[in-house]
Write the structure tokens for this entry.
Amino acid sequence: MTVGNRTRAALLLLCAAVLACASAAWAKSRHPLRIGLGEEPRTLNVWMASDANSNNILSQIYQPLYRHTPEETEMVPWLAAGPPEMEADGVTYQVRLRPARWSDGSAFTAADVAFTCRLIKEFKIPRHYSRWKFVDRIEAVDDRTVRFVLKEPMAIFLTRSLTIPIVSEKEWREVADAAKKQKKPLATLFNHTVERPLGTGPFVLEKWHKGAFLHMKKNDWFFGQGLRIGGRLLGPFVGEILFKIYGTSDVAMLALKKGAIDMYWQGIQPGYIENLEQHPEIRIFSSERSALYYLGFNLRRPPFDDPALRRAAAVLVDKSFIIERVLQGYGSRMDSILPAGNEFWYNPNLTEYGEGLNREQRIRAVHRILKEAGYRWTRPPVDDAGKVQPAAGLRLPDGSLMEPLTILTPPADYDPHRAISGLLIQQWLRQAGIPASARPMSFGALLQQVKARHDFDAFILGYGRLSLDPDYLRIFFHSEFDRERGWNMSGYHNPEFDQIAEASEKTMDLEARRLLIYKMQEIIARDVPYLPIYLPREIEAVRTDRFAGWVQMLEGIGNIWSFCQLSPVN
Amino acid sequence: MKTGNEQRDTLAAPAGRRDWLAGGWALFWENPIGKIGLILMACFALMAAASFVPPLLDPMYHPMHGVDPEISHATGPSAAHWLGTDFIGRDILSQLLAGARIAFMVGLSAAFMSIFFGTLIGMISGYAGRFVDTLLMRIADMVMVMPTLLVVLILSSLFGQLRIWTIVLLIALFRWPGVSRVIRAQTLTLKHRPFIEAARVTGASHLRIIFRHIFPNVLPLALLYMTFRVTSAIIIEAALAFLGFGDPGTVSWGMMLQWVWKTGHMFQAPYWLLPPGICISLLTLSFYMLGRAMEEVLDPRLRKEGESE
């Protein structure tokens, strides 16, 4: 080989290597982020969506004016350009918007914001209406300024009202106008099928192949691209996302191990962790949640209309046992309706029923509580010699025999933790002679029985993604919400609580409001309409060999910050 | 030994019946399938009987509520827990034994009920003929085409979790038509036999003819079908429990499988996954084998050449 030939060959090799590198880099950037979903999203109609999978997809598309930073310490302007400016009257707010565009390239304006807020008010959209009904007027001052006039000063306006997803007037105007002419406008709005949602978020829906996958592409018009918000430089740095639907967690875990997906967007059972940890390219995230899992009682009828019996049940329920065994340690006990992580509002001085007691001590304590309240047994749980024995024939203070009662739980298929907790609680109540039996039933039927028909004795349910603002305390227990399908599922009525709750909603001074929220927690802990049981952690698994940059925050890593910051691994 | 139905004409004589039973038993025992089936079933019956023992030894061996105070996660076999523990520290062996009891209870009672309905309807249909026959058989056809598992799943999701006895009853209600068809066919051949004619001529009532003369002759066939029904009842209950529609208050093998699955231990805890799975297979196999051997006893056409009578 001559020198010239050798040089040519070397050049050729160099070119080939450069080409190979370039094509690999190009291929990598083309490789989509693949995410496993537990179920098919039920709808892409943002007003109708209530399931986690639909909300996961829609959260990439529809954006709010403000959102929490990953550290959850403050709200940062998202579609808004800066914090809302409150006028001297205390009820007028002005919000300036960022220059942004919808995913079809049309301009995002103040008219869109005003339209969204009016739509919620006009249709009384159940999930959002309670945070907008106190807003009197919404005006688009100019293209980039919106003015809100409240009926009265309201503490929850920034944290609860201005965090709703904003929709495009162009997309929804006709739908809303047509729905208004129907007999049931809200139902018509809910039934509207959305195929290509128009949003301002980092991704747009490209294709939804039902039963198989959803394909999303980067939104070239995303307002946050290249901006630094909340101290973070936003992308997205990923060109495409492919959401694959997996029917069961087992299959999804196999897919994750094989590298068929990069993340499974659903909490996984602790049972998987040991096996997943054997794979070095898989990382487990265990995140705090803002949730509440509780035992609710029906205060509308005997026997749980008696606070003494509810307190007795609270002593019998061994929360530590449930956390240590059922949750495998991935959770913490709850004594307030508020999670302890919500440090500003959480009242740490509440009664910790049964804390530190062993089973026998719990039974003795309950025997004492119920005896003092006038309950009698044919065979008491503690005999005359002070020995604990199987109890039977519990009689109410009025002398009647306690009827068998049922604890409704979601089925193990839906949530094994709650179903098994129900069985354990049934057994613990029986030890004191309370004739309880756990009855798992399908989630829809359970909600129907508890929320709509109020036909139950007790139930175990949970709330996820509770807002940091503790206004839900008012919504869960104010007597105003004890109605068909209302949030006050226990049927709790307490004028003292109602009065404090109403004041808490309006008090603008943070310290004063905190005292009110503390008092509300105390009252609920005393009367026990709900017995908070546990706060589970969110366990998620991702592969680290293709993408990096997951942002962990409350409720896990599946959040908009992650999707705006994820980038391919070099 | 006399074959088929002709021996039943002489069943009135106790000695003849004894001979037939002895001959049948000899034939059954000669069949290795029958022998294995019977031994397997006896093992499971022993397991079911033994299920009462562990909770008496220590409350931690209670299959549903007992937990080992030292163990709070799934662990493999050890001296204290021969098959290991489940994710909250319950003993898997105790659950397996309790599961055997539930499987027998579900299998036998559902099979007995479906055989009871099937035999009764089959006999009435075959004996009465005409309109009654047509009506009952069309109903049987309609029930027969309904997929049992699917219907019970739907009912369960509509009315909440079903209790074990409701599940048993539902299985029985959907599994009688097959039996009734066979019994009806047998009744049709019987009702024209001379001994039935004779009974009718001597003034026996319809009820007496059905229960005193036809019933003893279809009984062996009904018992044969019962063994097959036990198999299907056990499998349906296990499938229901596995899918999350079983009775949560009972520890059945299907329920154990569901716990393994739903708590994420499917690939991590073979000591928990395999025992219930193997037990379901073996118990259903044992009843199937019993049925096959019984079939050979009752139907001479299935016997090998030169086999004893």
The first helix of chain A runs from residue 3 to 30.
